[in-house]
Structures are given as C-alpha cells and as structure tokens.
Amino acid sequence: MKRLFNLRAGAMMLMLFLLSGTSAWADVDDYVLSVRNVSHTTNTIDFDLYLLDADNAQTFEFTTLQMGLLLNSAIYGAGVLTVSYSNAGSGLDSDQQFVNTPDVVTSLSGYPGQTLIRLAANSIPPVPPGAGSGTIISSTGNGTFLAHFTITSSVSFTPNTRPDLLFCASSASSPLYPTVLSSYINGDATTLNVTPGVDAIIDGNPLLNSTLPAIFNVTGTGVYCVGGTGLTVGLDGSEADATYTLFRNSLVVTTTSGTGAALSFGNQTEGTYTVSGTNLAGTSPMNGQAVISTVINTVSGPSTTPSLCIGTALTAITHTTTGATGIGTPLGLPAGVSANWAANTITITGTPTASGTFNYTIPLTGGCGTVNATGTITVTPANTAGAASSTPTLCIGTALTAITHSTTGATGIGTPLGLPAGVSANWAANTITITGTPTASGTFNYTIPLTGGCGTVDATGAITVIPLSTVSAASSTPYTLY
User: Fold this and answer.
1) Which of 146, 227, 303, 481 could be cross-linked to 318 through a Cys-Cys bond (beta carbons 3.0 to 4.6 Å apart)?
2) What is the arithmetic mean of pLDDT over 401-417?
3) Which helix (H) or strand (E) is 395 found in, with range?
4) What is the pTM of this model?
5) CA distance 333 to 376
6) How far is CA 386 from CA 202, 381, 432, 453, in A?
C-alpha cells in the first residue's frame, strides 16, 4: 500500500492532533490474526497469514508483528523442519513486510511433543512514526494478506498425524516465543494482547499422509460343544495406532486397541464374526470372517414371522434343526396352532382362534444341550362395531342427536346404506358418528360397513322419522237461510 501521508502531511496531522487533543487515527485492538488456506503434501505444509480489522468503526493501522507458532513434533519424527515464507501478494507496505528468517526450536522444556517456530518482527517503520506511517488493515473478508508460509520436513510426515498449529500468546514466556502484534493507537505504536483461539486462530488442521489401517486376517473359525466357553476370535496382526472392532452377525461385540502384534478378542460363542480397523484416516474391513458353531443341537430362526387375521389359516412356519430327535411341549403358540417335528424340521400350522402377539418357544429334545426354537406370530382380532348409542325417534326436519358406534380394528367405513335423506355418517378415532336432519319419514334400518382391519363387519341401527301432523280443509262451508 502506498504511504497515505508524506512527511509534510504527517507533520500537518501531528499539528492537528496537538491542536485538537485527539487523533484522527484513534484505534482499538479489535482484530483477528489467522492462519488460513492450510494445505499439505507428503512433506510440506503451506498456509497463508491474514490480519483482519474486526472493528468497522475504527481504523486499524499496522505497526509490526512478531510471531510464535507451536506445532506437533510427532509429524516429522526424527526429521528436520525448515520454515520459509513469501511476501508475494502481501497487503503490507513494502517496508513492513517480513524480512527476518524463521527459526525452529525442537526442544522446549516443559512442553514435550511440541516444536516452536519463531519469526522476529521488523523494526517499527522509519521516521516519521505514528499515524500515517503504517499499513491500514482491511476490515472485510479474512482481512489483509500478510505472507505465505511453507513448513518443510526432511522426511515424509508421520502418517495420520495433525500439525496442531497454535499461536503463542503475547503473555508467553521462555521457552515459548510470544506473538507480539502492535498498531498505532492515538498516534503511538501500541502492543496488543494476543489470545490464542480468540483473536489469533488457526483455520485448518489437516490429517497428514492419511493412511487407512493395514489389512489383517480374522482368525477363529471352528466348532465347540454346547455349554462350552466358545472359541477365541482374533487377528493375525494389528497396528498400534488403530482400534479394532469385533462384530457378531453385524452387531458390535467389543473394541480394543492395536498392539503391533496379533490380537485376541477372547472367547466368543457361535456366530459369524467380522472385524474392522479404524484410525484417524478412516476404517478398513479386515480380511475374512470367523464362523463359530456348535456340534450339537441347533435350530434356525423361523422361516417367517407372520401377521394374520384371527380365524385365517396360518401359512406354515418352519425351523430347521440339527442334533435333536424331536420337540417338547411348545409354549406361547396361539390357540388353534400347533407344532410338529419330522426330518429335522419343526413345522407350525393351524388356524389361530385367539388374537395378540405370541412369542413362542419350542424346546428341542434328544441330542445334547438345551436349545429352543423361537419366533413371533401376530394375530389381529376381527373388526368390531358397537351397538348404536341410541335408536332415536324424531320428527322430520328435526336435527338428529348424534348417534355413535365404537369400532375396533377398522381404519374407516364404506358407503352407508339405509340412512334417511339428510343424514350422513363419518368415521374418526375408532368412532362412527351419524348426524344430520332427516328430510324423509319412515323407519330406517341402516347398515354401515367397516373397512380395513380383519373381517366383514357392519354397524347397524334404526332411526324412526315421524312425518309432520297435517289437517285437511273442511269438507263443506254450509249456509243457512233465516
């Protein structure tokens, strides 16, 4: 940015300041210093440094900046870090752009696992100092671009690590290196407080050299006797920076940390086991599966878990068995339904005469072990329609006091039959409501069919409508002579 004031203009400003007692360049320390546009390659991290004037009501005039940045030492291991920067495109005045060489401190007493990057500040701009000799910082977008930085490692970054960049506070003391930002306030170079995470932020913390977990083989397939403790399921290898999750039939069983060697999840009972490995980069399925089974009685799940209407013949439910020679007394089957065993198959048939949800259990007999066939049969009751709340008698043209029928099972009604003209029926919340004003007389025996649910059921009732009383004209109008 070009100088806003030359020497003469600066002197004039100083004179105005002395005369008025205030400065046209008064400022406050509302700002955001930020690392943005963080990107990386195998062994480099690039970012841009910005400074934003966060107070549109006042002007922020940049004086100088000293920067201390911490980062995670684990990203480069035994390698060597170097830091460089470029002022190309910087929005700072040319004599305020960075000129000093950054240095790297790898051993910080009291701060294990952290590396310090230090960049010394330029000197305050030359005479005349004060308002008008510094860069005016932008208050839009991310602010004024200061410089582009590159951190380079002599070795590839450690896979699945993050740089964890963090500004040092202005109050930091040795062995840290404080971040010191100053601006002209009322014409004086004034040091501002720098608080990491508040007015000095890092926008971006990428995962470096992201690498999914290596693939190992799932072990443990085999059989064991019912009543035993099962078989050990494991992996033939693991990585120390990964966690491993064991699934049984797609449901999580347990999670454990890798060790860098073969891994055991302990004894597991019958089922099909798979394993996935997860690290910061994501999740990898491990190779293969462990299928554990018993060598004695087994039974499959039901071929179906039906829902049907009461009084409807059940489509046969079957369970395949091994080891057993028969079945015991079934428990929980609905009335009208029974189970039989033949040729290693349980077959459940019948016509249920009771409604409800029936969780049944059928014990296997013979062979070894206590094993049950289990399943669920849901029987829906038949629709019902309660009696009419009233069977009214009323005069034609008189509003009907609502007649109601309570229903169960149904989801609505069909077309009513037999209602007098002027009267209609509606269904809501398991209730039929008949209302209206009859415009025809007589005795009306109505039928309203239920829809949905199970069975063919009608709501019925009667409404008697009396015609209005009438009187005919006189048969004659006699005339008497006197």
Assistant:
1) 303
2) 96
3) strand 393-395
4) 0.54
5) 9
6) 71, 15, 10, 15
* Segment 275-300, tens digit of pLDDT: 999 999 999 999 999 999 877 888 99
- Structure tokens, 94: 């040319």
DSSP-assigned letter for residue 126 = P
User: What does the block give as tokens for 206?
Assistant: 């990428």
Query: Pairing between strand 61-72 and 135-136?
Result: antiparallel
Give the pairing of strands 200-202 and 31-40: parallel
Residue 65 neighbours by CB under 8 Å, 6+ apart: 33, 51, 121, 146, 179, 180, 181, 182
Burial track 337-362 (b if 16+ CB lie within 10 A, e otherwise): bebebeeeebebebebeebeebebeb
Answer for the pair 316, 342: CB distance below 8 angstroms, yes or no.
no
DSSP string, 229-261: --EEEEES---TT-EEEEEETTEEEEEEE--SS
Looking at the DSSP assignment, which residues form a beta bridge with residue 346?
Answer: 319, 341
As a whole number of angstroms, the distance between CA 398 and CA 438 comes to 7
Report yes or no: 318 and 302 within 8 Å, Cβ to Cβ: yes
Sequence-separated (6 or more) residues with CB below 8 Å from residue 331: 360, 361, 362
**Residues 146 and 62 sit within 8 Å (Cβ to Cβ):** no
CA 442/CA 431 separation, integer angstroms: 26
Give, as one character, the DSSP assignment of residue 99. -
Q: Which residues contact 193 (CB under 8 A, 6 or more apart)?
A: 29, 170, 171, 199
